[in-house]
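Feature request, filed as a ticket because there's no other form

It would be nice if the structure record came with a short human-readable summary line next to the tokens. Right now we just get the raw output. Example of a typical job, pasted below so the devs can see what we mean:
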Amino acid sequence: MITVDGLDGLLATARQPALPELCGLLQQVLASYGSAARLVQEQKLRRSRVRRLQFEVDGQPHSLIAKRFWPSRGLRERAALTRWMPAVGLGAHVPRLLGTAAENTGRLTWHVYEDAGDWTLDRGPFDPDRVREAVELIVQIHVRFAGHRLLGEIRTGGDRGAGFFGACVRDAANALRSLRAPAADLSAENLALLERLLSRLRALELEQSARAAELVEHGGVETFLHGDLWLGNVMVMPPNGSGDRPVVMIDWDHAGVGPVVYDLSTLLVRFKPDRRRWVLDLYRDAARREAGWELPDADRLNRLFETCEYARLANALIWAAIAAADSPSAGAFEELAEIERWFEKLQPVL
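Raw output as currently delivered:
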């Protein structure tokens, strides 16, 4: 087994769980690079559960990414990287997974990846060429998976179709109602917050049938969705020797099956409003060229995108309400208040 100096202090200040399992995995990975290593630096990336770990192995630098998952999310991520994307010839567009290690209780899993660098679309100035390359890949994913044999496998635990909106609204309402149970000791402010959120959800429940029908008829082809198309999850590298810009998409743990508008809405809202129609036209043109697909007009798309955004906000409410029930605190209710502010700020995408 390789000796790795400094590994005993890894993530110590962050109180991360399952460190012995992670350290064992890192030793296995680093052993493929050499015989002696030392930890040079660790860096938090966006979330506390993601770290960039820089090592020196036999005098050579090596950079790895370690990410912690809930088990179901970890399995979905692993399948996307090692099975689903390679199945349609797109395995080069996902990060290289070097290994996984599960906590012995089964509560969580660590993944270790080869570091692809800091080339996400949310870094640096707006670059039309980089955005064009990213949109071309998104269209390729959607087109190649349309009608694919693996959609049934992917859908298990990841259905983002017409029923997703209604299920999220119902589950969010149930979770919030549990917080106002007679035994709960809530301040007047927190109780009022719950009532406002429940009122929003009741209004959305009344619209469920109409929104679902519109998604089925106009939401676009059902296909494989990344499910979390933030600009920070799309990397577009500098041009290589042949002039191509390699594109890598990360964070596949929300991947699922649903209409193309679900991914499109997530992507478009991450751009400034005056750039969204241009990005949408890139997708329109590529989808028409590759598969003959036609998207609805802007008014229809705005309604479809709104349904997708409401579904995501309701889904966020589910987890925030569960966290508040499991561990009541000011912080837990502040997260619910933040989601209410997201509802209030929701504007037409186009």
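Something like this underneath would help us a lot:
The longest strand covers residues 47-57.
Residues 298-326 form the longest helix (29 residues).
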